[in-house]
Specification:
Pfam families: DUF192 (PF02643). This protein has 115 residues and is mainly β. It is built from 1 helix and 8 strands; from the N terminus they run E-E-E-H-E-E-E-E-E. It has one domain (2-114): Jelly Rolls (Sandwich). 5% of the residues lie in helices and 57% in strands.
Length: 115
């Protein structure tokens, strides 16, 4: 499984080590209590439909890039700070990546999870 970005510069892989959080418990835990994540890692939160999705960084000791997607289109992007970052936007999928991994991703670009 991988996460790909379709942008102005073409298609590139954002992450090739992907975990999917698709249950209540896996979504609630997210990346809490981990010490770090690999550079090519992504956690993908999937939901059945688009709605307001919020993220917090409580017990996450490293910065993240977060992407909120609706039908594969980036609707919002934010760098979340370790321990105290907060973010919210409408999405049917949320992707968390190591800080800096989404620097070239812009709102309106395509991001897809490929199995």
């Amino acid at each position: 499984m991988r996460v790909e970005h379709d942008g102005a510069a073409g298609t590139r892989t954002l992450a090739s080590d992907v975990d999917v959080a698709d249950t209540f418990l896996s979504r609630a835990r997210g990346l809490m209590f981990r010490r770090s994540i690999p550079d090519d890692y992504a956690m993908v939160f999937t939901f059945g439909d688009a709605g307001e999705r919020d993220l917090h960084m409580v017990f996450v000791p490293f910065d993240l890039d977060a992407l909120w997607l609706v039908d594969g289109e980036v609707r919002d992007k934010k760098r979340l700070r370790a321990w105290r970052g907060l973010g919210a936007a409408v999405a049917d999928t949320v992707v968390e990546l190591p800080a800096g991994a989404a620097d070239e991703v812009e709102v309106g670009d395509g991001v897809r999870v490929i199995e």
